[in-house]
Amino acid sequence: MGREIKRVPMDFDFPLGESWANKEYDDHCATCPLKEHDDCDRPYMDVPTGDGWQLWQTVSDGPLSPVFATADELIDWMCQPVPLKDRKSWAPEPFPLNPWAQGWRREVAEPFVKRCGWAPSMVINNGRVMSGPEFMVESDRVKKA
After folding, report:
1. Residues 105, 92 contacting (CB under 8 angstroms)
2. What dihedral angle (degrees, nearest 10) is formed by the CA atoms of 23, 25, 31, 35?
3. pLDDT digits over 19-42, tens only?
């Protein structure tokens, strides 16, 4: 489970919060003549690649953000406060403890997008619970540019 930066086509139009893997499986099942689809040799369609920047979750393999032309535009979007409708009652203002899509601190979002590209959702380090991206940045696990 985690967050990942994917480079997708600028016109990539897949619903936010939906699972790319589930879509691919459903598309396969609609055309496969076998009853047990898990046993057939179905090709898995990778997410198309391109020049755009998009934040994905790795649990269901789906996008969390719109597609942006630059890394900086994605970072700006990620650092926006979490919309009220998406806030959890336990989340401190204005940032959640474990950002889903928006609400990231810039000092975490920028190195995550520009240098790391993937991190687990959460880490417990010496009894301290923290977001995976925060841990990656604080522990210097992100390669220095």
Report:
1. no
2. -150
3. 898 888 788 778 777 767 666 666
